[in-house]
Amino acid sequence: MLKRVIIVFFIILISLFETTANAEEKVVDGIVAVVNGDIITLYEMNDKMAPIMKQFGKSISTADAQQIKNIRSQILDRMINEMIIDQEAKKLKVIVSEQDIDGEINRIKESSNLSDEDFLRQLALQKTNLEDFKETLRKDIRKHRLVSYKVKNKVVVTEKEIENVWNSTQTDQGSVKESVHLKLILFPDGVSADDIREEIISGKMTFEEAADKYTAGPGAGSGGDLGVLEWDDLAQTWHDALDGLKVGDISQVFKVQQSSALLKLDSFEKQTTKSFADSRDVIYERLYREKQDAVFNDFINKLREKAVIEIK
């Protein structure tokens, strides 16, 4: 259990500090984009790209170079979105107090079972410090408060929608469901998911090797491993992709939002299904997240339409 919470803490650190690690060594040696007057530096871009470049190694083919270019474009796009959100939060004077930050840090330490000394030691291992951690955490909290303010009131999940999802998950057996251990490859633009699938099926590479090399989604660096997920938590498109698969099988190519994807079914187990009352909250959360994502994407697109963005 302790190992698991420490891993969660590492994930929090990595997600918060991709752009702040080694800040004391930072040199602005180029500008890759200007967003409403704020800049994204080449250093920041290279820092984001570093884990991906490690997967390609030193020998890069022409095809690899094109894939790297496409991945770089997607990462830059996300960096621009993050900057626009932060700018909008500042504009609307979304306030994050020191008490808010200290409270979040205390929650992180408690959930990871870390003392103050252990916490500072983990920051040092990520090549950052408490001051930088707090500043990045401030931005993260501010962003989530803005998103909550702008998006939350526009998301409505009805009881009828919940009932429809529940009914769609019931089978003739009715009393069993599956928990599935999945691995995912989420392909960047410019990479042929069908070609990579053929290479996996033919044995030229394993699914895990392909995931480490190509995936632009969760599980990068760990063979695309998503862990064990409850069947009811998966979107219908995932249900369709997994339909008929046996343990070890690879799905056909399907879409996750706008990206092509592959799934590998590592294992599954059948469990007694919960009642509608027991499942309602889980279904509600899944539907809420799906609708929230759609509203959030619309919100971002409108901000980008108003923004002055110059890509160097």
> What is the residue-averaged pLDDT?
81
CATH architecture of the largest domain: Orthogonal Bundle
CATH first level of the largest domain? Mainly Alpha
End-to-end Cα distance:
47 Å
Helix content: 55-70%
Order of helices and strands: HEEHHHHHHEHHEHEEHE
Structural class: alpha+beta
Number of strands: 7
* Largest sheet properties: 4 strands, antiparallel
Which stretches of 5+ consecutive residues score pLDDT under 50?
1-8, 17-28
Radius of gyration (CA) equals 21 Å
Total of helices: 11
**Total domain units:** 2
Strand proportion: 5-15%
Kindly identify the CATH topology of the largest domain: Triger factor/SurA peptide-binding fold
Q: Assign an overall shape.
A: globular
